[in-house]
Specification:
flat, about 230 residues, four-stranded antiparallel sheet, alpha+beta
Length: about 230
């Protein structure tokens, strides 16, 4: 077999194996990474890239190594779910950076965060004034979450003494590219008759609708296909 065909086939095998493992490891591996997940991602990616180009040893041994790392990562995740102590030992603990409006310099030094970096994280949370912050916590994945002081928080309906009746539902798309999506309709307790009536009220035809979504109040929002350019 020509070398280039061998490389193509081994690359495809590595990609398929990597996609399957990523799916099985779950969304945590592709979101904010803990230190162990960071190391796992680099190692698995390096092994997958190495497999197609290795010609001195059987290529399937690379897949064996890849599979071993996958099993280790999967086992660690199950251990983290079963024990808070193990989870804290592997991922670390949350660290308070600001408590009751006071910056904790010792914790900043412990996490090797400068004041400039702290302020940058606060600005990412739309907080520009340090005096507005009641608490700031660094999570194990490196994210910093902020709680504002009570008098600086946005007004809510509860704070205004307004109580809404009933529960809101998640907005769902019910028409996509002119096709009715039956499952979202059913989850909302609606049917095609309701949808047809709403389209008729808006004087729209189903085939002209690119997207339609039912919001939390039960209103239908319609987005039509773009008109063909002249």
């Amino acid at each position: 077999m020509p070398d280039w065909i061998s490389v193509v086939l081994k690359t495809l095998a590595a990609v398929v194996a990597l996609l399957i493992m990523t799916r099985l490891l779950g969304k945590r591996q592709v979101s904010q990474l803990s230190p162990f997940e960071y190391v796992t991602g680099i190692t698995i990616g390096s092994l997958a890239a190495y497999i197609p180009l290795e010609t001195q040893i059987p290529w399937y041994l690379g897949l064996v190594s890849l599979f071993v790392w996958f099993l280790v990562a999967l086992g660690i995740e199950y251990l983290q779910l079963s024990s808070n102590t193990i989870r804290e030992w592997i991922d670390g603990r949350s660290v308070m950076l600001i408590s009751q409006g006071k910056v904790l310099e010792k914790n900043l030094r412990q996490e090797r965060i400068t004041v400039s970096e702290l302020m940058s994280h606060l600005r990412n949370k739309n907080v520009f004034n340090l005096d507005d912050v009641e608490f700031a916590v660094m999570e194990p994945d490196g994210a910093i979450n902020v709680q504002l002081k009570p008098d600086r928080r946005p007004l809510t309906l509860q704070a205004l003494g307004i109580h809404r009746a009933g529960r809101e539902h998640f907005p769902r798309i019910v028409i996509m590219e002119g096709t009715v999506l039956e499952r979202p309709l059913a989850k909302l307790g609606l049917d095609r008759n309701w949808l047809n009536k709403e389209l008729a009220k808006a004087d729209k035809k189903l085939e002209d609708v690119f997207l339609a979504q039912v919001d939390s109040q039960g209103n239908l929002h319609i987005d039509l296909y773009d008109s063909p350019s002249s």
